[in-house]
UniProtKB/TrEMBL annotation:
Residues 2-148 form the Phosphotyrosine protein phosphatase I domain. The active site is at C8 (nucleophile), R14, D124 (proton donor). Belongs to the low molecular weight phosphotyrosine protein phosphatase family. Its EC number is 3.1.3.48. Keywords: Hydrolase, Protein phosphatase. InterPro entries: LMW_PTPase, Ptyr_pPase, Ptyr_pPase_sf, Tyr_phospatase_low_mol_wt. It comes from Paenibacillus durus. PANTHER family: LOW MOLECULAR WEIGHT PHOSPHOTYROSINE PROTEIN PHOSPHATASE, LOW MOLECULAR WEIGHT PROTEIN TYROSINE PHOSPHATASE. This is protein-tyrosine-phosphatase. GO terms for molecular function: protein tyrosine phosphatase activity.
Length: 156
């Protein structure tokens, strides 16, 4: 089984959106027994809270479930649990790299999945308010990621 963790700042906007979108794609492909997805934040301001209203609005618009999702903070223990830890921006990646054990983790930046995009980081809609733009990036990137994960599974 492959385990994916998305990381953003507060775990209420970008990373839970990516978690929900990838989970939806996994279910539609019938791969939920082979790939698991979670999300976390580098900050602790929103621990236990559901995704942001803007994230929920976008997921509702596309019929994607976020049931049971609650913000949590990334920890060193995550490095041993997840095959991929995907950070939504460079600041998140830098903060994750500061945690003990990070040198052994498979870290990557989300926008590396979309090398032709102008953005090199997923903009934070908590500050920009542009949840539609973030959804489009997340949906496209999760499609590329799922193809990569399916390739990884075929090699196992």
């Amino acid at each position: 089984m492959l385990h994916v963790l998305f990381v953003c700042l507060g775990n209420i906007c970008r990373s839970p959106m990516a978690e929900a979108v990838l989970r939806d794609k996994i279910v539609k492909e019938g791969l939920e027994q082979k790939i698991s997805v979670d999300s976390a934040g580098t900050g602790d301001w929103h621990i236990g809270k559901p995704p942001h209203e803007g994230t929920r609005r976008m997921l509702d618009l596309y019929g994607i479930s976020y049931e049971g999702m609650a913000a949590r903070r990334v920890s060193s223990e995550d490095f041993g649990k997840f095959d991929y830890i995907i950070c939504m921006d460079n600041s998140n990646a830098a903060n994750v790299r500061k945690l003990p054990g990070a040198q052994d983790a498979k870290l990557m930046c989300f926008m590396d999945l979309l090398p032709d995009e102008e953005h090199r980081e997923v903009p934070d809609p908590y500050f920009t308010g542009n949840f539609e733009e973030v959804y489009e990036l997340v949906d496209a990137g999760c499609g590329v990621l799922l193809d990569k994960l399916k390739q990884d599974l075929s090699l196992k």
